[in-house]
Amino acid sequence: MTEPLLSIHHISKTFPMARNFRDVVTRSPRQTLRALRDVSLTVRPGEVVGVVGESGCGKSTLGRCIAGLETPEHGDMLWQGAPISAGENRRTRARHIQMVFQDPYASLNPRMTLGQTLEEVLRVHGLAGDAARRRERVDELMLMVGLAPALKERLPHTISGGQRQRICIARALAAEPQLIVADEPVSALDASVQAQIINLLEDLRAKLNIALIFIAHDLNVVRHISDRVAVMYLGEIVETAAAEALFTRPLHPYTRGLLAAIPIPDPKRRTSVPSVEGEIPDPLSPPIGCGFSTRCSHVIHPCRVRHPDLHQTGEHGVRCLNPAATRPFADPGSVYPATGNQ
Ligand SMILES: Nc1ncnc2c1ncn2[C@@H]1O[C@H](COP(=O)(O)OP(=O)(O)O)[C@@H](O)[C@H]1O
Ligand SMILES: [Mg+2]
Prior knowledge:
By secondary structure, this protein is an alpha/beta fold. The protein has 12 helices and 12 strands.
């Protein structure tokens, strides 16, 4: 098996919460919000890892830690086997790990033409030599993401949302990265445009062998593009497996619930597993035991008092204390079709 490009071991990240007036008056201690708890993940060269979970579960914080925009308090992050925080490695990361964000408009400078945006990246990283070569490279990058080079004279507000996301992808590619962290790159786009952007990312991975961490709140979005999937809940990875295994033999009740929420047009193939109901607990006062215990239909006594470890069988990891819940196909209705609607 190839050596991982990126490996993350047990990282945690908390945010101190601002004190409000009442906290000051009642002299309550400053609260901290645990955004990431004991997260481990590896990404191999050219691999696509999908990261999914409901809003607020820590997906962006994980992406930002990987891209160096946040620093985890605990745990290690290795880039090609060497600690990422070391001087030289930090600079390598700035070029080799690029991010693509959900809102392409907010992440582009409104006063710079698309061409200038791309050229700037080439200049910052000292790529593509003199001015003439840089202009040539800008045209190449535009073509790689399916845009006519003539568009390079335009400003971001004059093109469509899908075209803007293509430019953000071209900007990431300009740095010649080995890993792109795409944080909900299609959530702000229309359904038809979503599929085009996912296809583009898939093509680029195939052509350039760039690894991709694809963050989404919807499992369906990462279904076909991912080699592996990590499902997050309240700052933790609750299940991780090869995509095929996760979609056909999901083990965690949360993953099963998320899959059950994906509409399947054929009634014969629908499942009897209920989708996840109820609200995510307040991240400032998470449950003592399993984070999912307040919403889980398989909850047993230990779940409310003991925190589950990630139990690994081969490549399939699951964080659940109820052996009956995680038995493959515990529920005869929980057989998921290999392909759902897209
Ligand atoms: N800079 C920050 N300061 C305080 N809390 C934050 C900050 N960034 C994220 N959070 C909190 O951390 C948790 C995880 O957030 P985030 O990583 O954005 O989740 P997701 O991307 O899955 O929606 C949320 O409860 C969020 O409110
Ligand atoms: Mg987010």
